Structures are given as structure tokens and as C-alpha cells.
Amino acid sequence: MVVGIQSLNDDVLVLIIALISRRDMKNLALTSRTVSSVARRRILSSLRLKAPINNLEFYNYMLEEDDGQRIQYLHKLTILCSLPSRRHEPADVYSPLATVLARARNLRALVVSELEGQLAVEGGSVLGDAIASLRGLRELELRCVATRGMALCERLACKPSAVRLTALSLHSIPNPRAEVQPAALAELEILRNASAIALHNFQLICDDDDEVPLPQPHAYRWNRARSLSLNNMDPVALAPLCPNLEYLQVAFWQTDDDGRGTTYGDDYHYTRTAEFTDDVQVACHLRVLDIYIKVNWNCEKSQIYDTITLTVRMTLPVVLSMQFHYGDTILWTELAELSEHADARLRYLDVLMHDDAGDAQMWLDECLPLFSDSDILCIRLRLVDQIDRDIEAEEFESMVDDEDELVGGHWEDIQNEAPQVIAKAIPSLRYVAVSSGYMVENDAAPVGSSFRGQVQWWRVVGDEEGSGVAGSDKGSRSVEADEEEEDSEDAESGEGEGLVEIDEEEGERIDEYLRSEAFAKTLKL
User: Would you kindly state where each structural domain of the chain is located, as residue ranges?
Assistant: First the structure.
């Protein structure tokens, strides 16, 4: 019996629709009687609105047309800012949108751009009141938060599990970094109830212009936070608020040549870091610490070094992911020393190499040997031609099948030689990976892009401990210990002494396990 699309139930059609582009969904909604209702529901589940100029039109579309049935399917709404050319709008310009929000009982995710500007519009308080009254949100993202935005955050009724607050706006240059009292930020109920928190570009300040006081952890705790993303903010000031933190993502970047972005990297941004002495208490035990640096400095050592090393000391990560930034051997020397401490938990080093193959060779020659006495089990190198060049996801997908597109010519020597060099440098090592690719646009990443590429994996076959993640001091579970004998035979006749290439699927499984809570629990504290 031939099964046609007409015979599929809605549950199956929903899964099919989820795999196609939004444009194709719209076409199916207009042309296919079978799929139309499912496609329409999917389209209506996530909508974008230009406010306030389209508020009334949006109201009519959601509540007046189609017997008002569309509003029940709205799960996510993105409110973009598009101010009218006229200076004076009616005081009730946001009333239609407020009505829609009040009746959107199934709304679970809300994104508001240029929040400060929209609240400042005459009648913008109506929008603020409507947002404050929402109770069912699970995800909330507010962009361009300043004085009005912080006041709104203090009276929100919702308790979302994911919160993203961004102070930076391209339209607020030259003063894009919103100033906020540390205690005011720490005691926000929406942050105290969230499991995933993203804070970007807030500047912690005090009324008396004295040094920035850290909110006392015993008074304000974000106990539910498992993931924290910080952009241009000192993690040393905020990590202690999250005793149960598992994943910390930190980004430091500065203005582009055309004036976009924000300047960061001066010592006054690191007041909390500068206050610390050698007595640093562990704030949490991270599984993953992901650091991205896009700051150029001319001094021999920036305050940012102290911020990074203090963060490592305070969080004891299992996985450390960061790039080798323009020959910063001083920083890597300090990180290597920390990896040898008795309480160190570092087992997976994930290094991004970019732009200059000479810098990558410098890391292999000068920095890698510093980790020879560590307990690192896995090292992955990520190679990207231009860290400042972001490509669209669609462009990257078109390159995946063409290996030559993903490997820059000047990386070939590094890609061929690095696995053996790495395997010989660190006795404890069990796995090596090398990946080449691009920085791909990603709205969820702190700086708007993240690395994506194709990866090759190898198992390091040792004479004493064999293969796998083994040993009570380094993680008691073996990933592939039963393949030791087979791997040893392959190594003798394979491509290189001590290395056996494994397929990408197995490598992904190893990567996932080393980042997991299960592996972290095997490590001694």
C-alpha cells in the first residue's frame, strides 16, 4: 500500500514542517490543503513585529481577522523598533499591541529590541505595563536596557527560565554601556529564578564613584542558574552569585573600525578583578568555561589576563575553550601553571587558532609543552582563516561537502603536523581533534557568531594506560577501553605512531561525554 502525504496525521506533519524553511512553510500554507492548517499554525507560532508603526495592523491581524483564532497559536513574539517619521504619535500608540499581549495566553517567548527607545516614546509606558503583566513567559530577551529598562525588570511578573538582558545598542553610541548598581542587578527576581542567564555590556557602578562592591553572595544568589553568558563584564564580580553554575561563557570585544560595538579592555573595567589578592575562594565547579577575546591591546599584559586566570581559579573548569589571541604566551603560561594545581579539574582544552598560522605554530612550540605535567585528556584545535569574517549559516552549509572550502591553504601544515605534536607533548592525553571552519552567524552567541567546521578525531594509544578516559584521578570511566588491543595494532600499521583515527560520530560522543555532568562527577574535588 502506498502511503501519501494525505494519509499522515497532524503529529507527523508537524515534524515534517519543522524541517523546512519558513519561506517553504508559507508556500505550503497557500498551496497545500493537506498541510495548510499545520503550516499556518507553525508560522503563527513565531512572529516578528515592527513597533510602533505596525501595532494597529498587528492587532487587526491577530484579533479581528479569522475570528480571532490566530492568537492561540502565538508562542514567540519578537518586537522590533521602527519609530515613525512623525515626532508626535498618539498617546495610545502601544495600546493595540498591549491588548494583543494581554490576550496571548500561550505566549512563551518574548524578544524586545531597542527597549529603552520604545519605552521613551509617548505612550511607551503602556508597552511596559503590558510586558510587566505577562506571567507565562519561559524565555525573555530585552535589548538596549538602561534606566527605564531596569525599572521595568524590577516589576516583571513572569519567572522565565531563560533571561537575556543586553545594554548595548548600535543606536546608543557613543555611550552604549548602561550603568547599573551591582545590588540592583543581583536582586532582580527574574535573574534569581532563571536557569540560563545572559548579561551583556552592563557597567557596574556605585553612587559615590568608589570601587565597585561585589554583591554579597549570602544576600543575593542566583541559585537556579546553570548557564551564565557575559559580554564585556567582569566574571569575577558575578560568578560568585551562581554556586550551582555549570557553563560560563565570557566574551571581551571592542569597537570596530566603523564605530560599531563598544570599547572594552581598559583596566577600569576590571575593578573587581583588581581588588583580589592571592586568597581566591572557589565560587563554583564549572563543567565548561568558554572565553572569547576580540580585544586588541598594546601593553605587554592586560588586566584581562588577571580576569581570565582569576575566573579559572574561582570556577575550576573541566573544559576550557578559548583562542590563542595574537601571541599571548604570558596568559597561557599562567593557565598551564593553574592546570598543575592539586585542585585543578582541567581535562579538555579546546583552542581556537585564527588568522595567522605562525601564531598557531608559536602555541604548539611554546605554550603546548607547558601543559606536559597536567592531567589533560583531550585537546582540540579549531582553525579559522579570519576571526573577523562572519558568514551566514546557509553559506556554511553549502561548503560542508567541499573539504577544500573548509581548509585554508595556510593551515595545511598545522592540520597535518599538529596531532602528532600534541600527542607527544602531554603524557596524559587520550584524544586529539583538529577542526577547520568559519565563524558562522549565531544570534545566541555573545558576539553574534560561533565556530563551525569539520573535525578529525584521533585516539592516542599509550604504552601504559591504553586508550579511553580512564584512571580515578582523571575520570574513572573509559569511553572505548575495550578497543585498546585493536587500536594498538592499527597504530603500528596506521598513519602515525601512537595515533588511531576515529570517526566523527565517535569523536562527537567523546566530546559530549567530557563536557557532561556524568564525567565531571568522576573527578576528585
Answer: 1-44, 331-525
